[in-house]
Amino acid sequence: MSIPNLITLYRITTIPIFVGLVFYEKKEAAFFIFLSAGISDAIDGFLARILNQRTLLGTYFDPIADKALIDLAFLSLTIKGFIPIWVAIIVLGRDFIIIIGFITLKAASFEIKVEPNLLGKATTLSEMLFILSTLSSFVFLSRLKDPLITIMIVLNCISGILYISKGTKIVEGGKGCQL
Questions:
Q1: Which segments within the chain are labelled E, that is strand?
Q2: For residue 65, what are the contacts with CB-CB under 8 A and spacing of at least 6?
Q3: Calpha distance 6→19 (Å, rounded)
Q4: Domain CATH for 163
Q5: What is the pTM of this model?
Q6: Cα separation, 87 vs 91, whole angstroms
Q7: Under a CB-based contact definition with an 8 Å cutoff, are residues 133 and 127 in contact?
Q8: Residues ≥6 apart with Cβ < 8 Å to 27
Q9: Rounded distance, CA 5 to CA 24, Å?
Q10: Residue range(s) defining the domain that contains residue 146
Q11: Could you tell me which residues are beta bridge partners of residue 112?
Q12: N or C terminus: which one in the chain shows less Cβ crowding within 10 Å?
């Protein structure tokens, strides 16, 4: 297994630890576990590029790890009352639409190329920063929570609309497309 894929595997192993810490309301420990997982997300992609270790497994493994980490973080933080339910509904709803759309298009034999893009990276970064600001006991970071929620929601809505638009174009055009 390549080094970037091992780092992605590490990120996946942090998920149950993070969720457990949230449920036991150990916010500071959850903060640092999530921070390490977020940093690992940046490192694995960087290493895959510079070491020329991009793999088919990593192409799917990395975004699945990201979605699992972020979505389970939003779900657990919402259940514990740390974030409002409407925020989780927007984030989880967008991801649900993307996943169902991807599965549907693949099942219908449409060719789909999954490539990271700037909007997707910005959306993921805003979600990670929002989660960290929610967990943070550091004053400077916790004060960013309100502006981050606005940025995150706007990015989620824009990217959700663009994914729906791309999916519609794939179906109407009857051929493959980059998501």
A1: 112-113, 177-178
A2: 8, 11, 12, 41
A3: 21
A4: 1.20.120.1760
A5: 0.90
A6: 6
A7: no
A8: 21, 82, 135, 137
A9: 30
A10: 3-178
A11: 177
A12: N
Q: What is the dihedral of CA 12, 17, 22, 28, to 10 degrees?
A: -100
Q: Name residues whose C-beta falls within 8 Å of residue 62's C-beta, 6 or more positions apart in sequence.
A: 4, 8, 41, 44, 45
- Say if CB 138 and CB 28 are below 8 A apart: no
Cα 36 from Cα 127, distance rounded (Å): 15
The domain total for the chain is 1
CA dist 97 and 129 (Å) reads 22
User: Along the 179 residues of the chain, how does pLDDT read in single tens digits?
Assistant: 899 999 999 999 999 999 999 999 999 999 999 999 999 999 998 998 899 888 878 888 898 999 999 999 999 999 999 999 999 999 999 999 999 998 898 888 887 777 778 999 999 999 999 999 999 988 778 889 999 999 999 999 999 999 899 888 888 886 555 55
Nearest CA to 8 among 79, 52, 51, 67?
67
CA angle 126, 128, 132 (to 5 degrees): 115
